[in-house]
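Re: weekly structure request thread

Next one in the queue (472 aa):
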Amino acid sequence: MQDKLHRTPSDALAGIVHLGLGAFFRAHGAIYVAEAMAASGGDWGVIGVSLKSPGTRDKLRPQGWAYTAVELAPTGERPQVVTVLRDVLVAPEDPQAVLDAMADPAIRIVSLTVTEKGYCHEPSTGRLNRNHPDIDHDLTNLLPQSAPGFIVRALAARRAAGTAPFTVLCCDNLPENGRVLRGVVLELAELIDLDLAAWIKSEVRFPSTMVDRIVPATSAQDIDRVAELTGVRDEAPVMHEPFRQWVVEDDFVNGDRPDLGAVGVQLVQNVTPFEHMKLRMLNGTHSTLAYLGYLAGHDTIAATMADPVFPAFVKDLWRSEIIPALTPPEGVDLVAYADALHDRYANPSIQHRTWQIAMDGSQKLPQRILGTIAEGQAAGRAMSGLTLAVAAWMRYVSGRDLAGQMIEVKDPLADTLADLWRDDPAETVAGFLALQQVFPAALRQDAGFANDLAKALTGLMDQGAAAAVEHV
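Done, posted below.
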């Protein structure tokens, strides 16, 4: 019988509360923070917060909050034990405990990876969704449910106590994510207390970031394999590719942060060019390959890239449709970046499931794909590849694949999207384009785009995904 993983964390105290303790943060930001503490010291331990369920907490607590992060390289697997976590709280069980942790003066950063839908905003505009049930709850209850609600109520507690605010560090795939989160928080605060909103606007910092590392979902088989690899049983390992990148605007309350620069984090004044590059070149093509690959019968991105029609397709997307709309960050070669993405996608050791990437598409497409299409249409560029990706998303969220078999769709708008499917592609397109919370006005009002999308959907249904890709 194998020993169970257990490590005693270091004596360093917590300085960060992280909302949304999923696999991505544990395979990315947590490792950077642990390395920064090892390099330069400081009390930057992390208190994780699960906003929905106790599963992660229940797996990590018997292990002393330690877990194994496994690098999946084509040449083999490399494990490391990460001990940066100090505690994990479950918000629905005890929201007051979460607020108390965030209000503690020792906490100087509150970071987030709650996925796009966790911001309770309208993806097409970036504004607070005032009709969101969690926001409706948080407006009238001191114990919140949403991530923005916890931030606003915790900042209110710090202001009332005369405590300096924390920096709010968004680590999700949103364009100008710090600005978007700041806007959502300020809108919510204004609805609760105008004086609080003014204090937040003046005193709190919301640096934008760009995060990049492919982190496939951990399977039961992965857990067994890690046990064989390490000789100990870890119920909560995370798997990740070798590549990683974190670009952060160096704008923190009182300049207080871990020594991230010492461990490879790029500290910049403006992260927007990096965000656009990554969101459109990586996330946009990742979603494209997920929908079209799934409909072509492929379970993973690597399997999709092994299908001969897809590498040429995605390379043309980068060259013809995405790169022309981008301003490269200083010193970055976008063609070389695309080549590196191609190799990362094709890594056979990364079993990144197409269904995992396909989740929550209504929240992801506006910033990953639709913005690029709108800019391309305005510039007179042909956008047939990304338009086909949108058609594939529409079929996917109908709840059926191309053979008519049922698909389990995970999306906050799943029921609404399924009801939009019609036998007539033009009618289907008209229904989807009426979704103001998804499609920007420039595309909703573009008759040419509607016609192109209907043609793409027709070709997809008539020819199949692989053939439609080949004939773009």
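The mean pLDDT is 96. The chain has two domains: 3-268, 272-470.
Next request, please.
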